[in-house]
């Protein structure tokens, strides 16, 4: 700060306090009695600010050493354990917690700050939430291995020839399916409705019907004797990470996000790997 700027700032402070803080002569400048009193107060304020700054830095350090993420139940059980193991190997001092909830609930947890980030297919826009596309995805058909009538790629009309194991109507995946069915003017035979994606896959394995799931969740199918077929034309959408806008940078979260990206790239079936997309049209 220049001498002129410093003198101007002191005069402004004295005007605000309505008293002189310094005695000025041609030879020296010294504090007045009011100046000495104000100096003590100013020193306490500066010390309080410095202490508060140190405490906030410490809080941030501990917060960065603890990561709270959310997944939908399917990936929480089938993908998160493997990702957690890899993350702990690379970051042994970071504690990580997971919440397994439906997409709408995960969004609420991010909005309230209860978790640092959530991963899933989020189709409802929300103010104050920032979305980062993690992996492109499509809807795919899952059917029993012994069903030779279904090839690796099929048109949507194939659904009319098979009983459908549907997810509940509140499921975003089911809502995408219903939109596609309406767009292609199809008439489906719903054999039953279940709440969980893995239940639908298990029933498909037994030949009770076929089911439609997102391609990012095809890791579930590896536990069952089922095949996966791409549905054409594809219904494209993004698997995303959501965070609260204005959050502090979190290096650990970025490392974990990269693990999610790598895991989805490795586990998604090549037969169902979609092209990059922007929306669920």
Automatic annotation (TrEMBL):
What Gene3D superfamilies does the record tag this protein with?
3.40.190.290, Winged helix-like DNA-binding domain superfamily/Winged helix DNA-binding domain
**One GO molecular function term?**
DNA binding
Cite the Pfam families for this sequence: HTH_1, LysR_substrate
- The answer to keyword Transcription applying to this record is yes
Annotated HTH lysR-type domain ranges read: 1-32
InterPro entries cross-referenced by the UniProt entry: HTH-type_LysR_regulators, LysR_HTH_N, LysR_subst-bd, WH-like_DNA-bd_sf, WH_DNA-bd_sf
UniProt KW keywords: DNA-binding, Transcription, Transcription regulation
Which SUPFAM superfamilies does the protein's record reference? Periplasmic binding protein-like II, Winged helix' DNA-binding domain
Q: Which family does it belong to?
A: Belongs to the LysR transcriptional regulatory family.
Q: What is the protein's name according to its record?
A: DNA-binding transcriptional LysR family regulator
Organism whose genome encodes this protein: Hydrogenophaga laconesensis
């Amino acid at each position: 700060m220049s001498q002129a700027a410093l003198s101007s700032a002191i005069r402004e402070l004295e005007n605000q306090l309505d008293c002189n803080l310094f005695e000025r002569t041609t030879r020296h400048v010294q504090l007045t009695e009011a100046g000495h009193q104000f100096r003590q107060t100013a020193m306490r304020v500066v010390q309080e600010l410095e202490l508060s700054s140190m405490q906030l830095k410490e809080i941030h350090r501990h917060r960065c050493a603890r990561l709270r993420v959310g997944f939908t139940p399917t990936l929480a059980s089938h993908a998160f354990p493997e990702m957690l193991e890899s993350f702990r190997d690379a970051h042994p001092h970071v504690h990580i917690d997971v919440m397994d909830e439906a997409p709408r609930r995960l969004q609420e947890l991010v909005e309230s700050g209860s978790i640092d980030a959530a991963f899933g297919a989020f189709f409802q826009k929300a103010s104050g939430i920032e979305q980062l596309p993690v992996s492109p995805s499509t809807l795919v058909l899952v059917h029993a291995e012994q069903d030779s009538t279904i090839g690796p790629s099929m048109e949507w009309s194939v659904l009319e020839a098979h009983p459908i194991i549907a997810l509940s109507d509140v499921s975003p995946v089911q809502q995408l399916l219903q939109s596609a069915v309406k767009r292609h003017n199809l008439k489906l035979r719903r054999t039953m409705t279940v709440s969980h994606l893995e239940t639908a896959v298990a029933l498909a394995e037994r030949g009770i019907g076929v089911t439609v799931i997102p391609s990012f969740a095809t890791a579930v199918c590896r536990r069952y004797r089922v095949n996966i077929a791409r549905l054409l034309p594809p219904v494209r959408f993004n698997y995303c990470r959501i965070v609260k806008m204005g959050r502090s940078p979190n290096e650990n979260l970025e490392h974990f996000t990269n693990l999610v990206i790598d895991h989805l790239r490795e586990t998604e079936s090549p037969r169902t790997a979609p092209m990059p997309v922007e929306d669920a049209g």
